[in-house]
């Protein structure tokens, strides 16, 4: 499993939005870092959850996230 390169404290999960399942991305639930689908998971890429949700014009709602699997 991949540990978050930003915080080093939690694994990175593959997730999707329940209300819009076509939005899939990777996320660390410890520090809220987000990587777009198929983006390399590194400290040189990614953004945070709130900024990502603003980019896709979707409400920032933690209850809308569904964990799919830990990224290996």
Biggest sheet record: 5 strands, antiparallel
Structural classification: mainly beta
Could you estimate the helical fraction of the residues in percent?
A: under 10%
Return the average pLDDT rounded to an integer. 97
β-strand percent reads 25-35%
- Written as H for each helix and E for each strand, in order along the chain, the element string is EEEEHE
- Spatial ordering of strands, largest sheet: 4-3-2-1-5
Give the distance, in angstroms, between the N- and C-terminal Cα atoms.
4 Å
Helical stretch tally:
1
Number of strands: 5
Shape: globular
Give the low-pLDDT segments: none
Determine Rg (CA atoms, Å).
11 Å
Characterization of the model:
The chain is mainly beta and 72 residues long. 10% of the residues lie in helices and 32% in strands. The N and C termini lie close together (4 Å). 18% of the residues are buried. The model has no long low-confidence stretch (mean pLDDT 97).
Give the helices and strands, then pairings:
Elements: E1 12-17, E2 24-28, E3 33-36, E4 47-48, H1 49-55, E5 65-70
Antiparallel strand pairs: 1-2, 1-5, 2-3, 3-4
How would you sum up this structure in a few lines?
The protein is mainly beta. It has one helix at 49-55, and strands at 12-17, 24-28, 33-36, 47-48, 65-70.
Characteristic terms for this protein:
1 helix
């Amino acid at each position: 499993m991949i540990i978050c390169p930003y915080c080093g404290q939690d694994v990175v999960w593959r997730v999707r939005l329940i209300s819009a399942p076509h939005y899939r991305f990777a996320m660390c639930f410890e520090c809220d870092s987000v990587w777009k689908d198929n983006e390399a998971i590194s400290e040189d890429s990614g953004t945070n959850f709130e900024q990502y949700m603003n980019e896709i014009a979707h409400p920032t709602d933690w209850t809308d996230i569904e964990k799919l699997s830990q990224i290996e």
